[in-house]
What does this fold into?
Amino acid sequence: MTEHCSKARRKAGSSNSPAPAHGRRRTRALEALIDGETARADKLRQVDIDMKRVERLDTFGAWLLERLVRAFTARGCQTNVTGLNQDYRALIDELHAVKPEDVTEHRSNQLTYAMASIGQNIVSVGQSFAAIVNMLGALVVALLRVLVHPRSFRFTSLVHQLDNVAWRAVPIILLITFLIGCIIAQQGIFHFRKFGADIYVVDMVTILVLRELGVLIVAIMVAGRSGSAYTAELGAMKMREEIDALHTMGFDPIEVLVLPRIVALIIGVPILTFLGSMAALYGGGLVCWLYGGIDPDVFLQRLKDAITMDSFKVGMIKAPFMALIVGVVACVEGLAVKGSAESLGLQTTASVVESIFLVVVLDGLFAIFFASIGM
Amino acid sequence: MAGGNGSKDVVIEVRDLVAGFGDHVVLDHIDLDVYRGEILGFVGGSGAGKSVLMRTIIGLIPKREGSIKVFDVDMGTATDAERQAIERRWGILFQQGALFSSPTVPENLQFPVREYLDLPQRLLDELAVAKLEMVGLDASVCEKFPSELSGGMTKRVALARALALDPEIVFLDEPTSGLDPIGAGEFDTLIATLQRTLGLTVFMVTHDLDSLNTVCDRIAVLADHKVIAAGTMDTMLASEHPWLKAYFHGKRAQAGHVARK
It folds into this structure.
């Protein structure tokens, strides 16, 4: 039985539409028609596809024709394409040569895929923990080497980094902590006033700021501001092979790049924490005075009674550790950047998220520690 | 100047080297010798592992098996101090230059020098200018940062940095890629001149048939994870290996031959 596939011909012809938006719709319509045509193939033994009226043929049309031929042939139906413009012979031959196994759909089981990605995520959490420990070890080695040969320490780099992460961060840190101090005081006064306990706002603000908020806010700000910068800088250096170049010149990138950055953070964050806490106390005091009617003299007197040296120390002791964790995570993620721009973005995000998470976890551990030693 | 005869002083000796990523073995039991004072052109298809071999020799990729000896020192068992001594004796030109982006051009050149030698700033500055002029640049680039350089200038500055410590071996990763034919030809001449004046041994990963023809003393070919041939251009042209035939007798190679005739 010979059937003249006039429908297929018309469809193939319709792919030469000039308007792109139409073309897209027509390609879809053509595909649906061709798939519908192949569904009838069971009844047929021979098919002639007449392409005479096709004036122009692109890869999409040609591939659909090829798909049609393959579908008919696969069902034991002899297929002839006739009347094809000789200009397109090469295109058709090229597509005819595409191996069937290359175009089979690669779709894995959704469940397997979900399980696999859960597994990969768990493994990657473990790996990043190992990478952090590894970096800490490498830092200690670099530090010991620098202690033995103090002249090999990159002092210029340290000063440059201190300028970036500490000095230039001062205005924004002061502003944010000042505002946070104001907000806590305002909220405290608003609610404490109901019980006539306005004056205890001073206790709340000062203890909260000195023990927890000052250092936490500074650490989070530094993670977002300097941690992300470290990751992006080191990542870009990794992408541009600068780190490989350092290696091949006999330099240790940990000593040259990572150590000055982390030391700068360890020096800078406690200073920022101190400044930030003072700004928050100032903001709190200001709001107590203007909004709560607590005179500055009364505020200061109350402050002296409420806090001890321990409250101040608790905040300051935590600061260098926060700096260490932010710096180590940032540098680990920066050195983990692969060659692509996407990976630079991913690692920078990971750096900020991971370091803020670890800062909060570390703060919790410190809270337990200080509670148990009675500080 | 043809290698392969006379006294053969091996500076890099690679034996039975295996390297790869994950399950993928890129280099499968490779042997390769590089002799003192030669320019070795290292060719192979894209993705065949030419750069992997170079990076394994210079220690950026860990090897799995085999041995790499540079100046008769086994890099696998060398102490840190021995390694560092070897690293002082080679210079590397990376494909994209890999200049440090924050310091200026002369500071880039002075960076390795500062680490190993204690020289006054004035001498460092003069040396930087001298090195830049050796690679065909003038002192005007001294004001510039690497991001302000053109592709060809970046390669030249990177070469100058590779030569900063007067190395004995220079590794070049596709030095002429991304340069126009004239620039590439000039760069080839530059490498040949520097090789003669400084007595360098050059290990050059390349795709450039003209470079192979004009400056390379010997050619080594990587295909199917192995070094399938090593020898002069004539050896390559005479070989019956299908990959070599395709590479050295292909259309592009023919065009090159015609152009030279």
In short: Chain B has ten helices and ten strands. Chain B touches chain A through 21 residues (CB under 8 Å).
